[in-house]
Amino acid sequence: MIVRDIMSTKLTTVEPGETLAHAANLFRQYGFHNLPVTRRVHRTDDSGTRTVLLTCEGLLYSQDIDLAAAVSQNEGNGQPWQERLVVELMHSAAVRVTPSASVAAAAQILVERGLSCLPVVEYAPIENETRAILVGLLTRSDFLLALSRSMGAFEPGMQLDIVLPHGDMTPLARALLLASELRVHIRSVQAAPRSDGTVELATLRLGTINPMPLLLRLKEEGIEYSFGSPFLGSK
């Protein structure tokens, strides 16, 4: 999976010369925590078609405005925070990814650097200079949504937990074989180890809300399991 598959492309942006009052209104209106800071540039192709592009200039966070408002209130004089410009508070967006980068690599960057989002850019020549053109934004919410989808959380189905005595994977292997024989689709498999490295439970996401044939076979095989109510969702 690559970044293009999960990134947000319907973007709300601000420009460096706009006021913090305008940015604050956008944060309140849309409930965002991050706003890309961009500049509009024009590119004309060989056919004469003119296209408006957005260069990636930086990022503005909602907490920046909260801090500016608090400082302004405490000082009680000087320029009102609402009249200050985005360029005064915005952060450099030196860490970026391209649409073709792997989701795993992007997630590693996000976690290791403690970031809340990553600008997604493509590089293009603009006026004899290579510029970073903003094409999307990758947030922690995008990662969580992608993870949920990969686990089948938005598909009709149910969760089945297979007990693995003393970390023995044999019951899991047998359960998967039985599911294959019965043509029960397995959307995902998870087996997270404990702190000592032992895996005691494997969680299967079944692509069915009628698992009875599989459950009967598991019982016949002596495989311990537990399950919850069917989760009905839509894609």
Automatic annotation (TrEMBL):
Q: Membrane-spanning regions, if any? A: none
Does the keyword DNA damage belong to this entry?
Answer: no
Q: Does the keyword Ion transport apply?
A: no
Give a single Pfam family match.
Answer: CBS
Superkingdom as given in the UniProt entry? Bacteria
Domain CBS, first and last residues per copy: 7-76, 90-154
Q: What keywords are assigned to this protein?
A: CBS domain
Which named protein is this? CBS domain-containing protein
